[in-house]
């Protein structure tokens, strides 16, 4: 008995020592169109800091060097040690079929204990693929990091908040950007920028045909300070645009929509907020003709101040609203816009 304990104990102690001291995080940082660091990646780094591990950032695509320099010279992230860039234009499209083999290789060849991505469309499509190839269950939409293995995430469209402990040796996390304040401005002179080589080829027969981008002068929906959202009550595309645009203009707000608005052709689906759309948490959220279905609330209920305009006094949106205006939106919205303009 004593003999077996003597042989087993050093192994246990060694394993615990290894786990405590060799923890490190690989963070996938996304570039914006102009080569700056995407806002969701700044929140991702804020979350990664909470893991208290040394962080390696990985940046891909032809703008990778520019993004890495911008990160190094304009922001402060406590545990960031180095940035590895893979400057290959074929990664510009962020096809998950191209990115996944690269991340799997990095995770297999290095002792990273955590791999973190933001809950952007790229992050959401890459993480399950990486999880499947490494045989690890990812933890998605993390909103709180309690310690390096305990995470909080919403389930059932945000109706239940679950705290889970992840036993996997390599933990794969997607971070809900709106739940973490982006890292502060500053500079990180000691951070090394390394060029990565040997990008593994995609083993799937997928080719990029073309990019169709929705052009908008408005702030990006998920990071906007103010959001004006239109529901089904706006009836058609013309009314949606004519009634909500002036209000969004005076508030320098992004425009959002419910799924009913999108399904009825009132606006583009990139505007959809909710369980199957985008998650936002702006300072001000104005819901116009929105009933407040649970699936919609899942995407906006963390907004700081919620204003609801609805003619039904029993509409569920009033349960989460800080200010409720009960009445006809066709009268209230132009009046409100005019008053804000003054
Ligand atoms: C699996 C699943 C996922 C879903 N995901 C999403 C999602 O991501 N996002 C999402 O939004 N929905 C989602 N939905 C749909 C959701 O259940 C609702 O159907 C949808 O949110 C309703 O949109 P709405 O509020 O625009 O329309 P409605 O529910 O029809 O509400 C319209 C509101 O406008 C008010 N109104 C009408 N006329 C006026 C007027 N003249 N003045 C003032 N108020 C007026 C009405 O009182 C009503 O409250 C999902 C559903 C399912 C099943």
TrEMBL record:
SUPFAM superfamilies: Adenine nucleotide alpha hydrolases-like (SSF52402), DHS-like NAD/FAD-binding domain (SSF52467). One of its GO terms (biological process) is fatty acid beta-oxidation using acyl-CoA dehydrogenase. Binds 1 FAD per dimer. FAD binds at residues 232, 258-259, 272-276, 289-296, 310. Its cofactor is FAD. Its main location: mitochondrion. It holds the Pfam family ETF_alpha. One of its GO terms (cellular component) is mitochondrial matrix. GO terms for molecular function: electron transfer activity; flavin adenine dinucleotide binding. It comes from the Eukaryota. It is found in: Mitochondrion matrix. CDD domains: ETF_alpha (cd01715). Keywords: Electron transport, FAD, Flavoprotein, Mitochondrion, Transport. The electron transfer flavoprotein serves as a specific electron acceptor for several dehydrogenases, including five acyl-CoA dehydrogenases, glutaryl-CoA and sarcosine dehydrogenase. It transfers the electrons to the main mitochondrial respiratory chain via ETF-ubiquinone oxidoreductase (ETF dehydrogenase). Heterodimer of an alpha and a beta subunit. Belongs to the ETF alpha-subunit/FixB family. This is Probable electron transfer flavoprotein subunit alpha. It comes from Saccharomyces kudriavzevii (strain ATCC MYA-4449 / AS 2.2408 / CBS 8840 / NBRC 1802 / NCYC 2889) (Yeast).
